[in-house]
Amino acid sequence: MPYVFKARLCGLICPECPEPLARVKVRLYRSREGQDVTALAAASPKDTFALVSAERAEEKASSLIAEAETDEQGRIELELGDEQKYAGEAFELDVYLERVPGQEKEGPSPRQFTVTTLQPAWRQAESGFVAAWDYCLPYRHWCLIRGLFGAYTICGRIVHCETKRPIGGVKVFAYDRDWLQDDELGSAMTDGAGEFRIDYPWAAFQPGTFIDIELIGGPDLYFRVESGGGAPLLVESPSRGRDPDRENVGTCFCVELCLDEEPPGISDPFPVFTHVGGYKYLTQIDSIPPGSGLTVADNRAFYSWMRLNGILSKRLNGNPMEYRFELRTTDATGAPTSGWTPIDPSKIARTVIGIWEKYDPAFPGDPDPIKTKEYTVNGSPGPEELVATIVSGWIRVPQESNVFGLEGYFSPNGNMISLISPMIAAWGAVNLTGLVAGASATAPPVSQALAPDQHFSLRMRVREVGDIGPGLSAGTCQHIAIDNTLYDNILHHPSWMPIAQSNALGVAMVDVDQLIASGGCGEIASDLDVLFTAEHPNLGAVGISMSGPGGPYSFTLPAAAVPGQDWFGTATPNFVVANLQPCAYIVTLEVQLLLTTGDSIPDNLIDQIAFCKS
Predict the structure, then answer these.
(1) pLDDT at 216
(2) Taking 50 as the threshold, does the pLDDT of residue 212 lie above it?
C-alpha cells in the first residue's frame, strides 16, 4: 500500500512573523551507513539543522527517495511506495532553494540544508498510509539562510500608542542611517491588522559610491509613517538608527511602531474568523477539500469547547457591528451534506471577547487609576464582568470608545465564541459491556464499531446593527473533523478489583493473563503476559511499562490491528521475569488520543494492574 506524506514548512523571521517556504524543493533521503537513525529521529529538528555543501549533496544523491516542490503555502504531498522502495521507515528531510521569499532575483548560488531525520506517524487510510508534518524553522536558522542569499526583511506592525489598536492603510518607509547620505530601503502599506513587510537586498545599504560611507557596517534603521494622502504621522530622527536596538541589525528585523493619534479616515479592520483555538485553519488544519479536517502537524480531531477567533472589529462600514456563526455538515472529504444553520447561543459557552477599561481613580494619587472588567458573550453580568447583547442570535460588538468618559473603552481580544461542540450533533456513546483486555471491541462478543469523526464547515457572518439581511461572509473553515463520542462500561484491570468506567474519551484496558484464573490474587513466577486494548478513531501512541524494584521495565507490543484506531493483544516483557526480585509490581498502560480543543489536548488515558512476584 502507498505511503502519502504531507508536509507544510515555514520559517520564522521572528517568533511573531512566520513565512511559508514557498516554491522550494523538499528532498527525502533514506538512511546511510554510519548514521544512528534512532537517535537522529528522536532529536529535535532545531538540533539537527545543518547546511549541506554541493559536494555533500552530490554524495547523498544516490540515497534520494523522492522530491517535490512546495506550493505558495509551503505545502507538499508525496506518494511513496514500491517504485521508491519505501516501506514506512525514517528518512532525512532536506530543503533545496534558489531564492528565498521576497527576493526578486535568484541568489548567488542555490543552497541546501538538512532539517531533520523524521519517522512519520503513519495512519492507515482507505487507500494506504498517511502522515503529516508541520514545521517552522527557528528564526536563527531561517534568517541564516536568508542572509546567505543577501535577502533582508523587516516585519512590522503599526498600532495606536494608547489603545494598542492596529492601524491599517498607512505607508511605512524604512531608512538606513549613513554617515553622509541615508538610504531608503523600501516602503509598504499596512494591512487591516496593522502589519507590514519590507524586503530589501544586501546591496541597498552597502557602499556604492565614494559619498556613501557607512559609519558602522550594517543597516541602522529608522522609520517614517505617512497617511494614504502623504501626511506625516510618525517621523523618527535619523539618530534613532544609532540606538542599540536599531544599530547594525541582522538579516531579519521585527518592530512595532505606535502612533499617538489615529489618522483621520482610518476605519476598523474588516472582521475575519481565522483560527480554531491556536490553529490557523487555512494552513494548520487540513481544511481545504478533500483534506481530512484534522490538524496538519499531528492529525488531531477537535472536541469539547472550541475557541473560534480572529480579528474582531467594533464597526463595519463605520457603523456598529454584529456577528454570528453558522455550520453545515460535510462528508469525510469536506463535501457539503447540508445547508448552513446558525449556531444557537445555547451552544456557545461563556467567552471573553475583550476588556473594558476606564480611567477612574478611586482617590487622588490612586496607583491603579485604570479600572478593567472582562467583556463576555453568555457571561454573568456583575461587578467584574460585562456581557455583550445578543439579538435574534446575532452578537452585538460592544461600542464603548472613550476610556476617559463615563462609557469607558472596549478593546477586543479577537475571541468570538467558544463553541460547545458536543451540542452541535448527536454523538451517542459506545457500550463496551463484555469487552476484555487483549480483545477488540469491534470483534465478537462485543462487536461495537468505533464511532467515526463527524465533519463540518464553520463560517462567520457579519452585518451592521439594524441590517436584517444575512450579512457578509467573514471567514469560512471549509472542513473540520470533530469527535465527541464517549465510551461506556469499560472494565479497568478486570482481574484485580475491577472498576467500570463510563463517559470515557477512549478505551484503555490492561490485565495480566496469569492473574485471570486466580481472580487477581495469584503470584507471578516466570511468565508474564500483559493483555491490553487501546481503541479510538484518533488513536496516538500506546505504551506499556512496569514499575518496581530495579525498574522501570519495558514491553514489546504486537503490531496494531488498525494503525491509528485499534491496538490490542499481548505485550511481552523485555526482561527475564524469573529474575525479578520478589516484591509488588505495577503494570501501566498509557494511551494517547489525538484530540484537541484548539488550545489544549486531553491527558493520556491510564490503566494499571498490580501483581506480586513470588
Answers:
(1) 40
(2) no
Name the DSSP letter for residue 602: P
Say if strands 301-302 and 3-14 run parallel, antiparallel, or are unpaired: unpaired
Alpha helix stretches (DSSP H) within 425-573: 513-516
Q: What does DSSP say about strands 151-160 and 252-259: parallel, antiparallel, or unpaired?
A: parallel
Q: Is 422 exposed, middle or buried (0-12, 13-18, 19+ CB in 10 A)?
A: middle
Query: What residues contact 462, with CB distance under 8 A and at least 6 apart?
Result: 271, 316, 321, 322, 323, 471, 472, 474
Q: Does the structure show a pLDDT above 50 at 445?
A: yes
Q: What are the grid coordinates assigned to 565, written together?
A: 484506531
Chain centroid to CA 587: 34
> Are 143 and 18 contacting, i.e. CB atoms less than 8 angstroms apart?
no
Q: How far is it, in rounded angstroms, from Cα 201 to Cα 105?
A: 10
Q: Cell numbers 490612586 correspond to what residue? A: 366
Per-residue model confidence (pLDDT) at position 105 = 66
Summarised one tens digit per residue, pLDDT across range 548-581 is: 999 899 999 998 888 889 999 999 999 999 999 9
Q: Which residues are CB-contacts of 182 (< 8 A; sequence separation ≥ 6)?
A: 175, 176, 238
Closest CA to 460 of 477, 471, 475: 475
- Please, what is the end-to-end C-alpha distance for the chain in angstroms? 47
**CA-to-CA distance for 305 and 417, rounded, in angstroms?**
10
The C-alpha atoms of residue 69 and residue 83 are separated, in whole angstroms, by 19
User: Above 70 in pLDDT, residue 391?
Assistant: yes
Query: Amino acid identity of 228?
Result: G
- Residue type for 138, please? P
Contact criterion met (CB below 8 Å) for 489 and 430: no
For the chain, percent of residues with pLDDT exceeding 90: 65
Vertex 315, ends 312 and 320: CA angle to 5°? 120
Cell of 69: 516542490
Cα 479 from Cα 458, distance rounded (Å): 8
Domains of the chain with bracketed CATH: 3-139 (2.60.40), 150-259 (2.60.40.1120), 272-429+443-482 (no CATH), 489-613 (2.60.40)
Does this model's pTM top 0.85? My answer is no
Angle, alpha carbons 256-260-264 (nearest 5°): 105
CB 153 within 8 A of CB 253: yes
pLDDT tens for 129-155 read 888 888 999 999 999 999 999 899 999
- Per-residue pLDDT tens over the stretch 347-364: 999 999 999 999 888 888
Helix extents (H) in 103-154: 139-148
* Res 47 pLDDT > 90: no
Looking at residue 453, its pLDDT comes to 95
